[in-house]
């Protein structure tokens, strides 16, 4: 169970729509296939970990979900509608892109004023409170903030819109362990405060294990594994290679099997088994 203990909870959600629904979702960049017929159904109220090797298609999926790029084929619905369908839908989704894009010459306070001007649902007390608690000096220019502070400011700009869904593309990858810990705690607090869902891509399986209650494993442009973490762990076991398997069990890779007989499996080992199988 992740530290926030909200696995399976939909308390506080203002929507009962699936957060993300993909059918045969495909994206080509020229001849390169970044997503190949992906089917997904992510229930509301989850903190979703999107994991996979470099080039798996994670950023492509998140950019499609934000409406920054268009699918080549198939359909994708986010909170029950086409991504970025209109201004109202845009307001329901907060996006924190890779490397926390901010205006280097603007101060923290100026970023908040800009956020207030650009977002009708802007929660200024929430923004100021987050900035104060993250120890961001209001008059400091973004270009002079540390990596951790920049990530906190980018997260603040996304959550103060009061979105129903936060989408984060490797938000904490460049942060040291302390800054990452602070960032992830801030993320969980915000998600709980908003009653929102979140999808974050990450290479850091320990972070995913800590904060996520739903998992999507992408590799080779395809979904290898998806579901609520508790259900996935319940459906897999460790059985030493060569040991007999029950008839309904399937060996995924190494000692990880899909089945209910055997020793419990850790989330990181489960992910690695599916990634290794995909790489075969
Ligand atoms: N704008 C683009 N033009 C051409 N090819 C692209 C473009 N964006 C992504 N790709 C290709 O699509 C595939 C998926 O890329 P994507 O960035 O979605 O993967 P990722 O899982 O986010 O990788 P990483 O973990 O390295 O960030 C890769 O082969 C990548 O080279």
From TrEMBL:
Matches recorded under Pfam families: ABC_tran
Domain called ABC transporter: residue spans: 20-245
InterPro entries the UniProt entry points to: AAA+_ATPase, ABC_transporter-like_ATP-bd, ABC_Transporter_VariousFunc, P-loop_NTPase
SMART domains from the UniProt entry: AAA
Record's keyword terms, sorted: ATP-binding, Nucleotide-binding, Transport
ATP-binding found in the keyword field: yes
Gene Ontology MF terms in the entry: ATP binding
PANTHER family, alphabetized: ABC TRANSPORTER ATP-BINDING PROTEIN ALBC-RELATED
Protein name per its UniProtKB record: ABC transporter ATP-binding protein
Organism: Dactylosporangium salmoneum
Species classification: Bacteria, Bacillati, Actinomycetota, Actinomycetes, Micromonosporales
